[in-house]
Amino acid sequence: MTKQFEIMLNGKRQLIEENSVLNVLRSEEVDVPSLCYHPSLGAIETCDTCIVKVNGEFVRSCSTEIKPGDVVESVGSDVHEAQLIAMDRILGNHELYCTVCDFNNGNCEIHNAVKEMKITHQETEHTSKESVVQRNSFYRYDPDQCILCGRCVEACQDVQVTETLSIDWGLERPRVIWDKNSPIDESSCVNCGHCSTVCPCNAMMEVGMEGEAGFLTGIKDDSMRPMINITKNVETGYQSLMTVSDLEAQLRESRIEKTKTVCTYCGVGCAFDVWTKDRQILKIEPQAEAPANGISTCVKGKFGWDFVNSEERLTKPLIRDGDGFREAEWEEALDLIAKKFKLMKKQKGADALAFISSSKCTNEESYVMQKLARAVVGTNNVDNCSRYCQSPATMGLWRTVGYGGDSGGIDDIAKAELIISIGSNTVESHPVLATRVKRAQKLHGQKIIVADIRRHELAERANQFVQPAPGSDLVWLSAVTKYIVDQGWQDQAFLDQHVTDVEEFMASLDKYSLDYASEVTNLSKEELIQIATSIHEAKTTSVLWAMGVTQHGGGSDTSTAISNLLLVTGNYMKPGAGSYPLRGHNNVQGASDFGSMPDRFPGYQYVTDDEVRAKFEKGWNVQLPAEPGLNNHEMVDAIHDGNLNVLYLKGEDMGIVDANANYVQSAFEKLDFFVVQDLFLTKTAQFADVVLPASPSLEKEGTFTNTERRFQRLYQVLEPLGDSKPDWKIIQEIANRLDGNWSYTHPSEIMAEAASLTPLFAGVTYERLEGYNSLQWPVKEDGTDTPLLFTDGFALPGGKARLWPVEWTKPLQFEEEYDIHVNNGRLLEHFHEGNMTYRSEAITKKTPREFLEVSPELAKERGIENGTKVRLTSPYGQVNVRCLVTDRVKNKEVYLPMNTSGEGAINYLTSSHSDKDTDTPAYKEISAKMEILEAKGENPLPRINHRNGNPQPQMGVRIEDKWARADYTFPGDLVKERRAAKNG
């Protein structure tokens, strides 16, 4: 319970809780200006406008902690004078031309402070800093409007932790700089947008806003300056300027829409407002109340929305005509689909058809897709892309703890004393989540261990970085677990009370000695002991893992080994601990949660369970198939075998993202009928017989479920482009042509139906998810959710977890000629194969193509340099790609990002080999031979890519450097000097 005590506030006694003076004043609704303070950033102490008196002394209220008995004065002529001095300095740095400013949207904090303080003029004349406006394709910085509040620096250094921005306090006129005073595009800036989000004025601003927000803001520079000067000459004071600009700001509300949505890219689940003018996206504005991300975004979420208005969007149905397509009306396309579906079902039965749902679509759309398969067509042949990445993690957690989701939330990850990241390029794959890890380490001393075969950013920041042999994670995890037990470091009380099968599991560890693990993994015994010791010494440990673990032949077993280690050490059932399999797509969690799986109804209820099946039969008023269907891996084999003839796929570029792409694409060619539903004519859609134009997230309503099991609503921002439609509407029209008799009018009705049949999220309603509200499953019928799992026991019989013995599955072996191991994964700038992000000119300019990371050792051995074009050939296919020489990889390990659907696409190399328990492709088990095609060539990574930058880490804005300047005096001291001189 928070401690309460009494203070004196402006002559009145108040009972308050421990906090900063500024927060106490705000809680008591006492207005104090505070231009550098931001609730998500804390006290920065640059602006001095929040000065008050505490016990007779002038202090900055943002950084002064209240104490029992304090006497606080926020009013009075001397306090007001100090605040005015601070505000006057700000106006010397910022020119007020509000009516013609793109930032005059009611949220300019300088404008609002001038108005609230009733300032009519300024003593310090605004003068130029004589520095050019900095800009790139995402945002711009105007030094002459910058008040040097330092919010952008604080956000960059200590929230995003890219550590690019600083204020050069040594300049005659200080300003914000990038790296060591580089242009933005030549710096380490990752264009996350934090700086423009937190800027209190128009100094840092999204370029999408320039000349677009106001009625008078599209004026060219050569006309703008005379207009500003004329306005200044006729204005009688700032209050009349404020009045006019307030009126103009109100008028803007009539044409600028601000709509809350949830990001369509990775699984972090960032939520934010989208500012639009007609179909034009002006900016993305994250809000502090967004539960997963707060004020944070990455380059994709902040700036990667050009695809929505792309001229390449599908806007009408397409029907195959010979070797190409012709446009068609909806009636013709849907009638053709219904005809073909009915014919095939009649000829070969329902199991001759299959359905693949999308991790990009909403929960409601996943629900109706699997309902179409089961209740209308009559088959359990339905799956989603979690088969490609997360199914093994889910399996490992089902075995051991009963729920296949993150143990807690992103806040729990940030609270952990120790983070272990295994096979996860977190900074690039889950960038906003990674900021929480980096911030916790930098500001609070959290310890990080990274196990990966590639040296990425989190590995470079880690307290311990180990590089196990590819595919050997299960062995070192089990060896660390055994060492902990051998030392007596296990949490015996936890095991006795909460875990079963302990003795059998302990016996299974015998083979995993340090000597054996060191031999298999290439890690030293000292490294293994250090990992074990760190876990033992930490009160809470959280483990993050991703595709580097799951995409192996033994991915489920390795995921199980992670959970075993956490159970043995008691790292469940408490905040800051647990298992966190990071979901790669925005709704890959929800796609499975809502039943797009061959063996489970929504909420992971088995189709083989007679009682469960009877419940759905009653709810849907149909007879349902009892046998599990085909997963997407099995579907491809069934097509080749002639047992699957019709495929309906939405929102997945399966022909390029599934393993062994040549084999998959040849399967598509064998289909009798193939329907693809997407935004663009993807590689997969090019094989279709009918292509249906779907709508992206900004053009529909629904919910997504992020990596931390969090339901969030997205609202329609724009009308569907052309004749495109939301996926749920398309699926309903197909269902009704197949006699489904559905009558949904809004996604909320779909959610209500799903919740009524699914105990896991029985209490989820659109009303409870209004605005930025969210719920984390399980959600009881009364709306009570579960941010932290297992506090009342595990989701297994008896409420106890289960230790599960595992055996190591050796990685796929290749002939000696295939001597290069090809690692692969995601890239910060592009999402997956880039179908959406390559439509952004700004992002594409930064990273225009795929590239192959090659180690300096291999480059020297083979005569490779930046730009060398090579061919990699595996037993399953080949890719052609240009090289980038970097020490992020070593020896004969290379790294090929998956950001292309062209000749460099990784899945032309991968095999059909898969995890033995879930059929997840073993994407990470690839070896190839290399030949040089062109010795010389253009560097595939432009000079303007952030990887070529030179970040400058520091804590915050280095405010002491400002205070040490000869031209700086604390306003409170100035007031005291003036009053002393006057009274003396």
TrEMBL record:
Pfam families: Fer2_4 (PF13510), Fer4_7 (PF12838), Molybdop_Fe4S4 (PF04879), Molybdopterin (PF00384), Molydop_binding (PF01568), NADH-G_4Fe-4S_3 (PF10588)
Annotated region (Disordered), positions in chain: 937-956
Every 4Fe-4S Mo/W bis-MGD-type domain range: 256-312
PROSITE patterns reported in the protein's UniProt record: 4FE4S_FER_1 (PS00198), 4FE4S_FER_2 (PS51379), 4FE4S_HC3 (PS51839), 4FE4S_MOW_BIS_MGD (PS51669), MOLYBDOPTERIN_PROK_1 (PS00551)
Ranges for domain 4Fe-4S ferredoxin-type: 137-167, 180-210
Keyword terms, alphabetized: 2Fe-2S, 4Fe-4S, Iron, Iron-sulfur, Metal-binding, Molybdenum, Oxidoreductase, Repeat
Top EC group: oxidoreductase
SMART domains: Molybdop_Fe4S4 (SM00926), NADH-G_4Fe-4S_3 (SM00929)
Cofactor(s) this protein cannot do without: [4Fe-4S] cluster; [2Fe-2S] cluster; Mo-bis(molybdopterin guanine dinucleotide)
E.C. no: 1.17.1.9
Record GO terms (molecular function): formate dehydrogenase (NAD+) activity
InterPro entries on file: 2Fe-2S_ferredoxin-like_sf, 2Fe-2S_ferredoxin-type, 4Fe4S_Fe-S-bd, 4Fe4S_Fe_S_CS, Asp_de-COase-like_dom_sf, Formate_Dh-H_N, Formate_DH_asu, MoPterin_dinucl-bd_dom
Superkingdom, taxonomy of origin: Bacteria
Residues annotated as domain 4Fe-4S His(Cys)3-ligated-type: 78-118
Iron-sulfur keyword on record: yes
NCBIfam families cross-referenced by the UniProt entry: Fdh-alpha
Listed PANTHER family: FORMATE DEHYDROGENASE H (PTHR43105:SF14), RESPIRATORY NITRATE REDUCTASE (PTHR43105)
Homology family: In the C-terminal section; belongs to the prokaryotic molybdopterin-containing oxidoreductase family.
Record's protein name: Formate dehydrogenase major subunit
Native organism: Shouchella xiaoxiensis
Source species taxonomy: Bacteria, Bacillati, Bacillota, Bacilli, Bacillales
